[in-house]
Amino acid sequence: MRYLLLTYYTKPSGQIDEAMTVSRNLKTRDHQTCSVILDFKQLKVIKASMGGVTVPRDFDRIVQYYHQHYASTIDRLFAENGYEIVKPEPEAADEKQDNTN
Questions:
Q1: Which of 2, 3, 15, 39 is least enclosed, having the fewest CB within 10 Å?
Q2: 95 Cα distance to chain centroid
């Protein structure tokens, strides 16, 4: 898979729902209906708009936000497109343990 697609729907009650899918290819329908389209092969934002308002197309910032909600899917997209995820080591926890001993 190459693309992360997010679509926001407004229910008649006014509640906003989010639908997330992944895809190998983009269709014309995706460009018309999706709110956010991220390309994990070229690491770029294809589309980013919320309620008709265009948001800054900062790939890292958008991925960081959605990673909180879709971590396993985003990690898989990076891996499938040849990118390795390097997670920072928990330094603060190690320092506290060293100081208490």
A1: 15
A2: 32
- Bridge partners of residue 7, in order along the sequence: 19
State residue 22's pLDDT score.
Answer: 97
Return d(Cα 73, Cα 78) in angstroms, integer: 9
The amino acid sitting at 76 is: R
Cα atoms in the Cβ-side hemisphere of radius 13 Å centred on 92: 1
Sheet holding 44-50, edge to edge: 16-23, 3-10, 36-39, 44-50, 53-54
Alpha helical stretches, state H, the chain: 28-33, 59-67, 71-80, 91-100
- Locate 18 and state its tokens: 């989010």
Q: Does 88 have pLDDT greater than 90? A: no
